[in-house]
Design a protein that fits this description.
By secondary structure, the chain is of the alpha/beta class. It is built from eleven helices and 17 strands. Strands 5, 6, 7, 8, 9, 10, 11, 12 and 13 form a nine-stranded mixed sheet that branches. The chain has a four-stranded antiparallel sheet with strand order 2-3-1-4. A four-stranded mixed sheet has the order 14-15-16-17. The mean pLDDT is 93.
Length: 399
């Protein structure tokens, strides 16, 4: 794998020789594969206990390889989410906020697609907390809507707006996650295509855009509220220097998040800057690259609730609403359903809308008209491949 010379030079200076050598060695290994199990499974099943746990996320587990997730109906049912291990650290951060009795009635994930951090947040937020999961890019917002819908959690709103739209709407939140667009250095091992997109010029473009996003988000944060700033990149311009800018520009404090030394999380790499920040580096932590920092908006004034969604673009699915009879399918038939094919159900199946399930977990709706059931699974969600596996793919063992 050929990395850009500018990146190698800058990253060696940043990390130092010993840390940089560990980092480069990681490119000779496969990227770790990890999943985060939906709490509805964690409560019902104990079969995941044989998997290797992600240490900073009790719902996260490493897999030995990368299976064909497409052919596991439980994946489509939202029983688990395929997520890079470092990104799961947001659950640890939120649990620390929860333990500090931070009031969380309204939470915003500002740049949320494809939905990994949103579903992670929803799993640990208070049940009565409303999570607004937003994505500015329309095509990516539809993917976000799909993943949030499949996760099946309540009190979720999916929106398709720019950060400035929330400021214009005068919305207020107790916590905002700014997982900002970045130069993607932390994706190099997982997605080599990102290497060709990297340049020093793009780094310059990114850190400026990130500050614009943070400026809009800060206006939407309640006094005493928390902004979680994160990237999947290594350089200090997009990370420590942006955090320092936030601290210098706003009345903010960076929060110390307790971590276990065995996790091998790296702190600040910017000389003279020792605020609590958390950096995941391949070869040092078992993950890809991530940088994260939690900042509190100093109290000045009274906290407000979310004023109005009326001026925001809210996305909803066109799935039938209501509680319908359930029809459980065996493995091969479940795959045919996920591919969008019509079904032939047992004669005693009620006419009308039914919910198709696999091992008891809902996949989607169908309309039973007697001699067949018309498939109502959304077209954009369907499996595109024409070749299906002959044997069942099992990622988590549910009886």
């Amino acid at each position: 794998m050929q990395l850009p010379e500018d990146f190698i030079r800058e990253t060696r200076l940043l990390m130092g020789e010993e840390r940089f050598n560990c980092f480069m060695e990681a490119f000779n290994e496969d990227a770790p594969v990890s999943i985060r199990i939906n709490p509805k499974i964690m409560r019902k099943e104990k079969s995941h206990s044989s998997l290797n746990t992600v240490p900073w996320c009790e719902e996260g587990f490493y897999l030995e390889g990368r299976p064909q997730f497409t052919f596991d109906p439980l994946f489509h049912a939202g029983c688990y989410y395929v997520q890079e291990a470092a990104s799961m650290f947001v659950t640890h951060v939120l649990k620390e906020m929860r333990d500090e009795k931070l009031e969380m009635k309204e939470v915003l994930d500002l740049c949320a697609a494809p939905g990994g951090k949103s579903t992670a947040m929803r799993s640990v937020l208070p049940e009565d907390c409303v999570l607004v999961s937003n994505e500015p890019v329309p095509t990516r917002a539809q993917i976000l809507l799909e993943n949030i819908t499949k996760w099946g959690a309540k009190n979720c709103i999916v929106t398709n707006n720019y950060p400035r739209d929330f400021k214009k709407a005068k919305t207020k939140f107790d916590l905002i996650l700014c997982d900002v667009p970045c130069s993607g250095e932390g994706m190099f091992r997982k997605d080599p295509a990102t290497i060709s997109e990297w340049s020093l010029q793009n780094v310059e473009k990114c850190w400026r855009l990130q500050r614009e996003i943070v400026a809009d988000a800060w206006e939407c944060l309640n006094p005493g509220g928390i902004l979680i700033y994160s990237t999947c990149t290594y350089n200090t311009k997009e990370n420590e220097e942006n955090v320092r800018w936030i601290l210098d520009t706003y009345e903010a404090e960076a929060l110390d998040i307790p971590v276990d030394p065995s996790w091998n999380i790296t702190g600040s790499l910017l000389e003279g800057f020792d605020a609590p920040v958390y950096r995941f580096i391949p070869g040092i932590t078992r993950s890809e690259g991530l940088f994260i920092c939690a900042l509190r908006k100093m109290r000045k004034g009274k906290a407000e609730t979310l004023i109005s969604h009326s001026s925001l673009k809210i996305l909803t699915t066109d799935l039938p609403q209501g509680v319908f009879p359930r029809v459980d399918l065996p493995y091969q038939e479940a795959l045919h359903y996920l591919r969008g094919e019509a079904l032939v159900l047992s004669p005693n199946t009620p006419r009308g809308i039914v919910t198709v399930t696999y091992k008891g977990f809902p996949l989607g709706p169908a309309k039973n008209i007697g001699n067949r059931a018309n498939n109502l699974y959304p077209k954009p969600w369907r499996i595109k491949t024409t070749h299906l596996p002959k044997e069942e793919i099992k990622i988590i063992d549910i009886q």
